[in-house]
Amino acid sequence: MGPEILRDISFQIPKGSFQFLSGPSGAGKTTLLRLLFLALAPTRGLITVFGKDRTLIKRNELPYLRRKIGVVFQDFRLLDHMTTYENVALPMRVRGRDESSYRNDVVELLKWVGLGERINVLPPVLSGGEKQRAAIARALIEQPEILLADEPTGNVDPTLARRLLRLFIELNRSGTAVVIATHDLQLMDQVDARRMVLAEGRLTLHD
Amino acid sequence: MTDAAAASGPHTPKDGTLRRRTPIVPQRSVAGRALIIVIAIMTFLSCLTLGAVTLVRDTAAVWQTQIAREATIQIKPDDGFDIEQALVEARDVAAGFAGVRYATIVDREATARLLEPWLGAGLNIDDLPVPRLVIVTIDESAPPDFAAMRSSLEAAVENVSLDDHRNWVDRLITMARTTVTIGLAVLVLMLSATIMTVVFATRGAMAGNEPVIEVLHFVGAESGFIAAEFRRHFLWIGLKGAAIGGLAAIIVFVAFAWWSSMNLATPEADQATALFGNFAIGATGYAGVLIVLVIVAGLTAATSHATVVARLNQIEIGRTDHA
């Protein structure tokens, strides 16, 4: 067993809430997000996701729960052989949905994030900011109940960071709970939202 | 959505042509092409080995039956001994036995021809004490009692001996069995090498697809869906590679058979035919190629499936995670 990364942590993410998760590099932000995303199981402790005890969730139920959670990875995780449109539409495609049922939604969403002109472009051609927005669009396409974003403004300039933040706020207004992991203080100062600060494996809440 | 947006839909580039839907598993990767080549080479070598083993097995069977089909009665000449009379008596005694199809005396001319390579042409056989032969052709399915035949011949004819070729047959059977066993051992080694190469090459090709597995997993794809996508893709790769290798092996078989039939009258072909029959790979060889092809393609698909499942298990238990 490796070192203990998180300990004595207790918090709740209410429906429709907006919060920042911050702390120095290596504090465990990504690990906490992975726990929330059900990509990791805690070595001990209790995590309740959508009212269900994490340890009691069967493996075959996990994909259905994950569909309620949108994730924006720090490294985007776009598939290079697929166009921007196909990457964003991927969550729908893996559910076996007919393309005609989601095509318009994907195009609309891509326009909303400012990628209307980059629909048929492959990710290696996109800039860092465009990749970031494509990754955000993919996380939003299914209108998740909660959005987890890991350093979503880490690769973009301050102007684009503000645009992305506005995008998250808009999403939050439509009812999605948002958790943004960042150590960008300027970004956090722009919104009056709860701050969850991780340091040395412990969490402090600033409501 | 506006009409303009609908007109320039996601799969409709600006030139108006429809874009084909991209498969979830990347189709044209260097690793994929290398895997096809590796599979083709290994399938080709396996099929050649299989063909060679079936050829040796069939030839060994022919050797055995040909030599076991005949026995030889030898009568030595002696002073005042009517060898022609003895030959007729020996032939009649042998032909009377159950299990003997017929017995033929090797006449004076034929005997002289047999000795011609050593003693030259124009040989007067009466000048030399040359033993004479009776060839007994045997029903292989119900051979005669050679001990009884030998006793009867010795009772009826002087200076007679019966050679049932048993020593040769025993040696040939041993040699044929050894040859086939060695061939089978080589085939097992070859198939094992093919299996391992295909498994490792497939796993190597799968390594480049780990990000795809992870992304599919994190966008909520079920394990069965991910595994099926990769299984289908790698089954196709396996089929393509194995078909190329199998087809190349069949071309080699056909070319050998053709070469063999085209050179029937030449001394080289006679030598080869004496050893290997007519160089034709039988139906077993071709069926073997088909079986190897199915095994290799199935193995490729199964390996990709197992790799996906193992990777998903790793992700699920967070073994590869680091903070």
From TrEMBL, chain B:
Region entry Disordered, spans: 1-21
Transmembrane feature ranges: 34-56, 180-200, 212-230, 237-259, 279-302
InterPro entries: FtsX
Highest taxon of source: Bacteria
Keywords: Membrane, Transmembrane, Transmembrane helix
Protein name, UniProt field: ABC transporter permease
Organism: Aquibium pacificus
Source taxonomy: Bacteria, Pseudomonadati, Pseudomonadota, Alphaproteobacteria, Hyphomicrobiales
